Amino acid sequence: MELISLPFFSEKCGAAKSSISEDLAIINRVFHIEGIGQLESNSGASGGVRYMPRIGNEISESVVATLCQQLEDPERILPGGYLFMSDILGDPSTIREIGRLFASRFATLNIDSIVTVATKGIPLAYATASYLNVPVIIVRRDPKVTEGSTVSINYVSGSSKKIQTMVLSKRSLRAGENVCIIDDFMKAGGTINGIKSLLKEFDAKVKAIGVLAEAEDEEEERVVDDYTSLLQIKNVDSNNQQIEVIKGNYFQ
What we know:
The chain is α/β, with parallel strands linked by helices. It has seven helices and ten strands. The chain folds into two domains: 6-52, Arc Repressor Mutant, subunit A (Orthogonal Bundle); 57-251, 3-Layer(aba) Sandwich (Rossmann fold). It has helices at 6-13, 17-34, 57-71, 86-89, 92-106, 122-132, 190-200, and strands at 37-42, 48-53, 113-117, 136-139, 150-156, 163-169, 178-186, 205-215, 228-237, 242-247. Helix 5 crosses helix 6 (122-132). The model has no long low-confidence stretch (mean pLDDT 90).
């Protein structure tokens, strides 16, 4: 998140620094009242102010409760026990709220970039990145000629147990960057574990992992432990057309 100096506001608004400081204090109070964030101030010659995304418990609980209700619609059940989620991932207002939830949780981690894998996690990644004001980096299954030289690894898919490949452009990351992985769905965590292995090739530090929904699967051992989920899909009963969705570990 960018730190903006007070002289910038003074020059842009044609006002004294003292007046700007008073205005920013009012804005900060409104942000707190509305539960949408806060302004963080740094003093000194290189100081300034930056927006830190925050979301109140009441709002976050409401957003997740609405998502649970939407996903429990039995018409979403697909063959193999999967759920149709494309409408949620394609709705701008819903995606913005999900991005704000993740950004609020990870705002203090000094994230340099958001990493996701093509394709369904891309809207979530951009929504989160927009609040954190950082770039999005997309890991792909196949190399693209427009991305130049790439680094590739093989990994074991958690669900199918197949050996798959993922690639990332060499120009995507600087060595030592702090990254946050965002994805739409996690079962055993094989894909996210693969991304973590790929990021090691860039000496990147995975500071956070956020997933929209995780599946409860007692038959498969999860290979990713440290993550934040908004939803947990506990049961998909295709025979009786029933779905049970609860809050994820975001609230723990």
